[in-house]
Specification:
It contains nine helices and no strands. The N and C termini lie far apart (about 45 Å). It is elongated, with a radius of gyration of 19 Å.
Length: about 150
């Protein structure tokens, strides 16, 4: 075992050792259903959590399926709202989806706007009062408000 491997690399290597099926996105509906059944059966037998499944599923998508996956994640990012999550949970979800929105990720001000606009109304009002200019400033301001 490679002691320098990250936990994700180790997980991916183990998962790939079972030769999981791939999906191109050009298959028939029956083939897609079959792929889904096969991949779910593998996940079940490995007793993987939903979080692990989500991290691994993207590695099994190719061609059209991968493009659709990225578009879907980009849309989820664009529509992300805090909802029932606390700030830490919202931040974690926001950060994990940010990579699917390179047009936002490359601009710190756009990242801050997206994050703030997704906050619940009561927190949005608090944060927006002293409207930070960057995502980093947003996090610092939120942390200061929690400490106050």
């Amino acid at each position: 075992m490679d002691v320098t491997a990250t936990p994700m690399e180790t997980l991916l290597k183990r998962f790939q050792s079972f030769h999981p099926p791939t999906l191109k996105g050009t298959e028939t509906a029956v083939d897609c259903e079959s792929w889904l059944d096969d991949i779910e059966m593998l996940f079940e037998s490995l007793a993987y959590t939903d979080e692990r499944r989500m991290k691994l599923i993207g590695h099994q998508l190719q061609e059209v399926a991968k493009i659709s996956y990225r578009k879907d994640k980009g849309a989820k990012f664009a529509n992300l709202r805090q909802g029932q999550w606390n700030i830490e949970e919202y931040f974690a979800k926001f950060s994990s989806l940010l990579r699917f929105a390179p047009h936002v990720a490359g601009n710190d001000e756009a990242v801050a706007d997206q994050f703030i606009n997704g906050l619940n109304p009561d927190i949005f009002t608090l944060v927006n009062t002293g409207r930070p200019n960057t995502f980093s400033d947003t996090l610092i301001e939120r942390k200061e408000q929690r400490l106050a």
